[in-house]
Amino acid sequence: MSTRILLTGGAGFIGSNFVRFVLRERPDCSIINLDSLTYSGNPESLSDLDGEPRYRFVHGNILDLELTTELIKECDVVVHMAAESHVDRSIIDARPFIESNVLGTQTLLDALRRADPDNTKRFVHVSTDEVFGDLPLDQLEVKFTEATPFAPSSPYSASKAGSDMIVRAYCHTFGINACTTNCSNNFGPYQFPEKVIPLFVTNLIEGKKVPLYGDGKNVRDWLHVEDHCEALLAVLEKGAAGETYCIGGNNERSNLELTHSILAAMGKDESSIEYVTDRLGHDRRYAIDATKIKRDLGWEPTRSAWPGALENTIKWYVENETWWHRVKSGEYLSYYEKQYGGR
Ligand code: NAD
Ligand code: TDX
């Protein structure tokens, strides 16, 4: 039987990769992509799907209860990833994060209840490992699991933790058929060049320096976006209602190590690094223990191994300059610069 997916936020980085991944891997699936096209939503990321009968784009906001109710009625399942996603922006202005991530998720859940009073439709809530706060640099054996208490430290992660709590509450109170995922840092094609990997790669192509925050010792656990998409599909199809799944790459790198790998792959040296004022409240280390999703759903990453996966991603940005040139307006850089200086 064919499955009709309502995807929110599908014009963004992970969403556009998810659309392509699902259409390729599941010939019986069709997708409606609901996206309000904020600064990070880019229909050009899906322009190769023009005319594809299994794909439809709807320009709209998850805060629109009537629209989302009608769209959910048309679909069998919902994958919710629409959100404000950049930590630095949330430090400058938290309000859009509360609106889209908290109120938007609550509105979507109310739409789900109206459209599906019998709780038959699976709802996958796509969240982040940042809800758990951060880990120390000197205890590498400690990682986030599904049992780690929430301790968000940025306005972004607080808004995502709020959305996760609302999903949990709707599962408990109303019995909705939802799963939540908490994933580590993604990398791959079509990522908005405000995030560290595409920002650094595109800066180097443009002959600029790369702004490394603080001492560069902060650690992130890097996962290729297609591994994330595959994990989301596993949760959609096989996850247990009410459960949470942590998703990670088992691929921890300090920002300094990441930067050196990018410099080496692009034939640059240390002189391209500019150490700048640290991000306010900068989380030290993220690391995921993905035992549960491997044990229960049989998923583990297969596309994230370094240096190959990083080099392929760099190559994509080198070969797709037209895509990132248009979106890299410079507005966000000067904005951050005005607030904090140092870039
Ligand atoms: P992104 O910023 O690239 O894309 C977000 C998309 O959501 C954009 O297309 C935007 O237009 C849309 N959107 C925002 N607010 C909306 C609203 N109110 N109504 C409709 N559409 C709206 O973000 P991303 O990196 O693709 O992240 C997608 C999701 O995955 C987010 O929920 C994020 O918290 C989560 N996540 C991201 C990462 C990562 O490393 N990028 C890791 C873990 C979890
Ligand atoms: O210019 C920079 N210089 C720098 O040193 C930028 C933009 C970042 N950094 C550092 C900060 C972080 O330690 O690089 C690391 C990664 O930063 P981001 O790419 O902004 O990602 P992060 O803050 O870790 O959050 C990301 O992963 C979790 C996504 O943006 C979130 O949406 C996701 O939930």
- Multimeric organization: single chain
Percentage beta strand: 15-25%
Domain module tally: 1
The average pLDDT is 94
Q: Reading side by side through the largest sheet, how are the strands ordered?
A: 3-2-1-4-5-6-11
What CATH calls the topology is Rossmann fold
Helix content: 40-55%
- The rounded distance between the terminal residues' Cα atoms is 53 Å
Radius of gyration of CA atoms, rounded to a whole number: 19 Å
Helix/strand layout:
Blueprint: E1 3-8, H1 13-25, E2 29-35, E3 55-59, H2 65-74, E4 77-80, H3 87-92, H4 95-115, E5 123-128, H5 155-174, E6 178-183, E7 186-187, H6 196-205, E8 210-213, E9 219-221, E10 223-224, H7 225-238, E11 244-247, E12 252-254, H8 255-265, E13 273-276, H9 291-297, H10 308-319, H11 321-327, H12 331-340
Parallel strand pairs: 1-2, 1-4, 2-3, 4-5, 5-6, 6-11, 7-10, 8-13
Antiparallel strand pairs: 9-12
Helix pairs in contact: 1-7, 2-4, 4-5, 6-8
Could you explain the architecture of this structure?
- By secondary structure, the protein is an alpha/beta fold.
- It has a single domain (about 5-340), classed as NAD(P)-binding Rossmann-like Domain (Rossmann fold, 3-Layer(aba) Sandwich), CATH 3.40.50.720.
- About 40% of the residues lie in helices and about 15% in strands.
- It has twelve helices and 13 strands.
- The chain has a seven-stranded parallel sheet with strand order 3-2-1-4-5-6-11, sandwiched between helices. Strands 7-10 form a two-stranded parallel sheet. Strands 8-13 form a two-stranded parallel ribbon.
- Helix 1 links the parallel strand 1 (about 5-10) and strand 2 (about 30-35).
- Helix 6 runs parallel beside helix 8.
- The chain is globular and about 60 Å long.
- The relative contact order is 0.14.
- Mean pLDDT is about 95; it is low at about 335-343.
- The structure holds nicotinamide-adenine-dinucleotide and thymidine-5'-diphospho-beta-D-xylose.
- Thymidine-5'-diphospho-beta-D-xylose binds near residues 87 and 220.
